[in-house]
Amino acid sequence: MFYHVKELQYTAKPSQPDPVYAKKLQEVLGGQFGEISVMMQYLFQGWNCRAEGKYRDMLLDIGTEEIGHVEMLATMIAQLLDGAPVQDQEEAAKDPVIEAVLGGMNPQHAIVNGLGAQPNDSAGYPWNARYTIASGNLLADFRANLNAESQGRLQVCRLYEMTTDPGVRDMLSFLIARDTMHQNQWMAAIEEIEQTQGSIVPSNFNQEYEKQDVSYSFMNFSEGEDSSNGSWANGPTLDGQATFQYVQHPQPMGQKPTLQPGPASLHGTNPEELRVKQGLGKMEPLQ
Protein backbone atom coordinates (compact mmCIF):
# COMPACT_ATOMS: atom_id res chain seq x y z
CA MET A 1 0.00 0.00 0.00
CA PHE A 2 1.23 3.49 -0.86
CA TYR A 3 0.40 6.77 0.81
CA HIS A 4 0.84 10.15 -0.85
CA VAL A 5 2.29 13.01 1.17
CA LYS A 6 1.30 16.39 -0.24
CA GLU A 7 4.70 17.99 0.29
CA LEU A 8 7.45 17.19 -2.21
CA GLN A 9 10.58 15.38 -1.08
CA TYR A 10 12.51 18.52 -2.03
CA THR A 11 11.64 21.94 -3.42
CA ALA A 12 10.90 22.07 -7.15
CA LYS A 13 10.32 25.71 -8.04
CA PRO A 14 11.98 27.59 -10.91
CA SER A 15 12.76 31.29 -10.73
CA GLN A 16 11.03 32.00 -14.05
CA PRO A 17 9.23 30.21 -16.89
CA ASP A 18 11.32 28.49 -19.52
CA PRO A 19 9.32 26.23 -21.88
CA VAL A 20 12.42 25.33 -23.88
CA TYR A 21 14.16 24.00 -20.79
CA ALA A 22 10.96 22.19 -19.81
CA LYS A 23 11.34 20.20 -23.02
CA LYS A 24 14.93 19.32 -22.13
CA LEU A 25 13.95 18.28 -18.62
CA GLN A 26 11.56 15.70 -20.08
CA GLU A 27 14.60 13.49 -20.77
CA VAL A 28 15.31 12.78 -17.09
CA LEU A 29 11.63 12.27 -16.46
CA GLY A 30 10.53 9.96 -19.29
CA GLY A 31 13.76 9.01 -21.07
CA GLN A 32 15.52 5.66 -21.04
CA PHE A 33 17.49 6.54 -17.91
CA GLY A 34 14.91 8.88 -16.42
CA GLU A 35 13.12 8.75 -13.10
CA ILE A 36 10.12 6.82 -14.44
CA SER A 37 12.48 4.07 -15.60
CA VAL A 38 14.27 3.63 -12.29
CA MET A 39 10.99 3.94 -10.38
CA MET A 40 9.42 1.09 -12.33
CA GLN A 41 12.62 -0.95 -12.41
CA TYR A 42 13.18 -0.88 -8.66
CA LEU A 43 9.54 -1.46 -7.79
CA PHE A 44 9.17 -4.48 -10.07
CA GLN A 45 12.47 -5.89 -8.85
CA GLY A 46 11.17 -5.52 -5.31
CA TRP A 47 7.72 -6.95 -6.02
CA ASN A 48 9.28 -9.89 -7.87
CA CYS A 49 11.99 -10.51 -5.26
CA ARG A 50 11.62 -14.00 -3.74
CA ALA A 51 14.21 -13.36 -1.04
CA GLU A 52 12.52 -11.75 1.94
CA GLY A 53 14.64 -9.39 3.99
CA LYS A 54 16.94 -6.44 3.44
CA TYR A 55 17.30 -6.60 -0.35
CA ARG A 56 13.58 -6.60 -1.03
CA ASP A 57 13.05 -3.87 1.54
CA MET A 58 15.83 -1.75 0.03
CA LEU A 59 14.38 -2.10 -3.47
CA LEU A 60 10.95 -0.96 -2.33
CA ASP A 61 12.48 1.88 -0.28
CA ILE A 62 14.34 3.35 -3.24
CA GLY A 63 11.58 2.57 -5.75
CA THR A 64 9.13 4.51 -3.60
CA GLU A 65 11.58 7.41 -3.33
CA GLU A 66 11.77 7.51 -7.13
CA ILE A 67 8.00 8.04 -7.28
CA GLY A 68 8.70 11.25 -5.38
CA HIS A 69 11.38 12.23 -7.88
CA VAL A 70 8.91 11.76 -10.73
CA GLU A 71 6.51 14.08 -8.94
CA MET A 72 9.25 16.67 -8.39
CA LEU A 73 10.18 16.72 -12.07
CA ALA A 74 6.57 16.82 -13.23
CA THR A 75 5.96 19.76 -10.88
CA MET A 76 9.07 21.56 -12.09
CA ILE A 77 8.14 21.07 -15.76
CA ALA A 78 4.63 22.38 -15.17
CA GLN A 79 5.98 25.50 -13.47
CA LEU A 80 8.54 26.06 -16.21
CA LEU A 81 5.57 26.13 -18.60
CA ASP A 82 3.65 28.69 -16.52
CA GLY A 83 3.31 31.87 -18.56
CA ALA A 84 4.38 30.19 -21.79
CA PRO A 85 3.03 32.27 -24.72
CA VAL A 86 0.68 29.68 -26.20
CA GLN A 87 -1.96 32.14 -27.41
CA ASP A 88 -1.70 34.76 -30.13
CA GLN A 89 1.54 33.17 -31.26
CA GLU A 90 1.73 35.03 -34.55
CA GLU A 91 1.66 38.34 -32.73
CA ALA A 92 4.03 37.13 -30.04
CA ALA A 93 6.46 35.78 -32.62
CA LYS A 94 7.16 39.31 -33.84
CA ASP A 95 9.45 39.55 -30.82
CA PRO A 96 12.66 37.68 -31.79
CA VAL A 97 13.19 36.48 -28.23
CA ILE A 98 9.68 35.06 -27.91
CA GLU A 99 9.94 33.60 -31.40
CA ALA A 100 13.02 31.65 -30.31
CA VAL A 101 11.19 30.39 -27.24
CA LEU A 102 8.19 29.29 -29.28
CA GLY A 103 10.42 27.57 -31.80
CA GLY A 104 12.06 25.43 -29.10
CA MET A 105 8.97 24.67 -27.06
CA ASN A 106 7.40 21.23 -27.16
CA PRO A 107 3.98 21.98 -28.69
CA GLN A 108 2.46 18.96 -26.97
CA HIS A 109 3.10 20.60 -23.62
CA ALA A 110 0.38 23.06 -24.59
CA ILE A 111 -1.79 21.11 -27.02
CA VAL A 112 -1.91 17.71 -25.33
CA ASN A 113 -0.96 18.32 -21.71
CA GLY A 114 -2.32 21.78 -20.98
CA LEU A 115 1.04 23.13 -19.82
CA GLY A 116 1.96 19.98 -17.95
CA ALA A 117 4.59 17.25 -18.04
CA GLN A 118 4.20 14.03 -20.00
CA PRO A 119 5.72 10.54 -19.67
CA ASN A 120 7.90 11.11 -22.75
CA ASP A 121 11.56 11.88 -23.37
CA SER A 122 12.92 15.19 -24.66
CA ALA A 123 12.26 14.17 -28.26
CA GLY A 124 8.64 13.31 -27.51
CA TYR A 125 9.14 9.53 -27.60
CA PRO A 126 6.81 7.82 -25.09
CA TRP A 127 8.28 6.12 -22.06
CA ASN A 128 8.71 2.41 -22.71
CA ALA A 129 8.62 -0.47 -20.22
CA ARG A 130 11.39 -2.08 -22.29
CA TYR A 131 13.72 0.36 -20.54
CA THR A 132 13.36 -1.62 -17.32
CA ILE A 133 15.10 -4.78 -16.12
CA ALA A 134 13.75 -7.17 -13.48
CA SER A 135 15.37 -10.55 -14.12
CA GLY A 136 14.90 -12.22 -10.75
CA ASN A 137 18.69 -12.43 -10.27
CA LEU A 138 19.66 -9.77 -7.73
CA LEU A 139 23.31 -9.48 -8.80
CA ALA A 140 22.36 -9.02 -12.46
CA ASP A 141 19.63 -6.55 -11.50
CA PHE A 142 21.82 -4.53 -9.13
CA ARG A 143 24.45 -4.15 -11.86
CA ALA A 144 21.73 -2.87 -14.19
CA ASN A 145 20.64 -0.48 -11.45
CA LEU A 146 24.19 0.85 -11.07
CA ASN A 147 24.28 1.53 -14.81
CA ALA A 148 20.90 3.27 -14.67
CA GLU A 149 22.02 5.56 -11.84
CA SER A 150 25.33 6.27 -13.58
CA GLN A 151 23.64 7.28 -16.83
CA GLY A 152 20.93 9.19 -14.97
CA ARG A 153 23.40 11.20 -12.91
CA LEU A 154 25.39 11.98 -16.06
CA GLN A 155 22.29 13.38 -17.77
CA VAL A 156 21.17 15.42 -14.75
CA CYS A 157 24.67 16.93 -14.45
CA ARG A 158 24.55 17.88 -18.13
CA LEU A 159 21.14 19.50 -17.60
CA TYR A 160 22.53 21.37 -14.60
CA GLU A 161 25.09 22.97 -16.92
CA MET A 162 22.37 23.95 -19.41
CA THR A 163 20.55 26.36 -17.08
CA THR A 164 21.39 29.29 -14.85
CA ASP A 165 18.02 29.30 -13.10
CA PRO A 166 18.86 29.04 -9.37
CA GLY A 167 15.61 27.27 -8.54
CA VAL A 168 16.10 24.62 -11.21
CA ARG A 169 19.73 24.14 -10.24
CA ASP A 170 18.75 23.76 -6.60
CA MET A 171 16.38 20.90 -7.39
CA LEU A 172 18.88 19.27 -9.75
CA SER A 173 21.58 19.48 -7.09
CA PHE A 174 19.33 17.41 -4.83
CA LEU A 175 18.72 14.79 -7.53
CA ILE A 176 22.44 14.64 -8.31
CA ALA A 177 23.18 14.04 -4.62
CA ARG A 178 20.63 11.24 -4.45
CA ASP A 179 22.17 9.68 -7.56
CA THR A 180 25.52 9.77 -5.77
CA MET A 181 23.97 7.89 -2.86
CA HIS A 182 22.24 5.39 -5.10
CA GLN A 183 25.40 4.60 -7.04
CA ASN A 184 27.21 3.96 -3.76
CA GLN A 185 24.26 1.91 -2.55
CA TRP A 186 24.25 -0.39 -5.56
CA MET A 187 28.04 -0.78 -5.47
CA ALA A 188 27.83 -1.79 -1.81
CA ALA A 189 25.01 -4.26 -2.49
CA ILE A 190 26.88 -5.73 -5.48
CA GLU A 191 30.03 -6.22 -3.42
CA GLU A 192 28.03 -7.87 -0.64
CA ILE A 193 26.34 -10.36 -2.95
CA GLU A 194 29.59 -11.12 -4.79
CA GLN A 195 31.19 -12.13 -1.49
CA THR A 196 28.63 -14.90 -1.05
CA GLN A 197 27.67 -15.83 -4.61
CA GLY A 198 30.72 -14.95 -6.69
CA SER A 199 31.08 -12.36 -9.42
CA ILE A 200 29.77 -14.25 -12.46
CA VAL A 201 26.04 -14.35 -13.21
CA PRO A 202 24.47 -16.81 -12.75
CA SER A 203 26.60 -18.22 -9.95
CA ASN A 204 24.92 -21.64 -9.82
CA PHE A 205 25.55 -22.64 -13.45
CA ASN A 206 28.10 -25.46 -13.71
CA GLN A 207 31.12 -24.17 -15.66
CA GLU A 208 31.76 -27.70 -16.91
CA TYR A 209 28.96 -27.05 -19.40
CA GLU A 210 30.65 -24.07 -21.01
CA LYS A 211 33.47 -24.17 -23.57
CA GLN A 212 36.19 -23.63 -20.99
CA ASP A 213 38.94 -23.28 -23.60
CA VAL A 214 37.69 -19.74 -24.26
CA SER A 215 36.26 -18.85 -20.85
CA TYR A 216 39.14 -16.51 -20.03
CA SER A 217 40.62 -15.61 -23.45
CA PHE A 218 40.61 -11.99 -24.58
CA MET A 219 40.50 -12.07 -28.38
CA ASN A 220 41.92 -9.21 -30.41
CA PHE A 221 39.49 -8.69 -33.30
CA SER A 222 40.77 -5.26 -34.34
CA GLU A 223 43.93 -3.75 -35.76
CA GLY A 224 46.66 -2.98 -33.24
CA GLU A 225 47.48 -4.40 -29.83
CA ASP A 226 46.56 -1.56 -27.46
CA SER A 227 43.93 -3.74 -25.80
CA SER A 228 46.64 -6.17 -24.67
CA ASN A 229 47.72 -3.68 -22.00
CA GLY A 230 44.46 -3.97 -20.05
CA SER A 231 43.97 -5.97 -16.88
CA TRP A 232 41.30 -7.92 -18.80
CA ALA A 233 44.01 -9.40 -21.06
CA ASN A 234 46.68 -10.35 -18.53
CA GLY A 235 46.80 -11.45 -14.92
CA PRO A 236 44.30 -13.18 -12.64
CA THR A 237 40.61 -13.16 -13.51
CA LEU A 238 38.29 -11.31 -11.18
CA ASP A 239 36.34 -14.45 -10.32
CA GLY A 240 39.58 -15.97 -9.01
CA GLN A 241 39.24 -19.06 -11.16
CA ALA A 242 41.92 -18.57 -13.84
CA THR A 243 44.37 -16.25 -15.59
CA PHE A 244 43.45 -14.07 -18.54
CA GLN A 245 44.98 -15.12 -21.86
CA TYR A 246 45.57 -12.65 -24.71
CA VAL A 247 44.92 -14.04 -28.20
CA GLN A 248 46.49 -11.80 -30.84
CA HIS A 249 45.20 -13.57 -33.96
CA PRO A 250 42.08 -15.57 -33.07
CA GLN A 251 41.33 -18.24 -35.65
CA PRO A 252 37.87 -19.37 -36.80
CA MET A 253 36.67 -22.40 -34.88
CA GLY A 254 33.46 -23.09 -36.79
CA GLN A 255 32.41 -24.42 -40.16
CA LYS A 256 31.84 -22.48 -43.36
CA PRO A 257 28.04 -22.22 -43.49
CA THR A 258 26.34 -23.62 -46.58
CA LEU A 259 22.55 -23.44 -46.63
CA GLN A 260 20.50 -25.90 -48.68
CA PRO A 261 17.89 -24.64 -51.17
CA GLY A 262 14.57 -23.67 -49.68
CA PRO A 263 11.25 -25.19 -50.77
CA ALA A 264 10.34 -24.29 -54.35
CA SER A 265 6.98 -22.97 -53.14
CA LEU A 266 8.77 -20.08 -51.39
CA HIS A 267 10.24 -18.90 -54.72
CA GLY A 268 13.56 -17.95 -53.22
CA THR A 269 16.86 -17.80 -55.08
CA ASN A 270 18.16 -21.32 -55.67
CA PRO A 271 21.79 -21.34 -54.43
CA GLU A 272 22.54 -24.76 -55.97
CA GLU A 273 21.46 -23.59 -59.41
CA LEU A 274 23.69 -20.51 -59.13
CA ARG A 275 26.67 -22.62 -58.05
CA VAL A 276 26.31 -24.92 -61.06
CA LYS A 277 26.07 -21.97 -63.45
CA GLN A 278 29.26 -20.53 -61.93
CA GLY A 279 31.08 -23.81 -62.33
CA LEU A 280 31.35 -24.34 -58.56
CA GLY A 281 29.81 -27.78 -58.54
CA LYS A 282 27.00 -29.11 -56.44
CA MET A 283 26.52 -28.11 -52.85
CA GLU A 284 27.84 -30.30 -50.07
CA PRO A 285 25.42 -31.26 -47.27
CA LEU A 286 25.34 -28.73 -44.43
CA GLN A 287 27.84 -29.65 -41.72
What is the arithmetic mean of pLDDT?
A: 90
CATH level-four homologous superfamily name of the largest domain: Ferritin, core subunit, four-helix bundle
Detail the poorly predicted runs.
none
CATH architectural grouping of the largest domain: Up-down Bundle
Number of strands: 2
What's the number of helices?
10
> Strand percentage, roughly?
under 5%
What structural class should be given to the helix and strand makeup? mainly alpha
The CATH topology of the largest domain:
Ferritin
Radius of gyration: 27 Å
The helix/strand order is HHHHHHHHHEEH
Shape category:
extended
What is the first-to-last residue Cα distance? 58 Å
Largest sheet: 2 strands, parallel
Compute the number of structural domains: 2
**Strand order, largest beta sheet:** 1-2
Which percent range fits the helix content? Answer: 40-55%
**CATH level-1 class of the largest domain:** Mainly Alpha
Family: Belongs to the manganese catalase family.
Protein name: Manganese catalase family protein
Pfam family, one: Mn_catalase
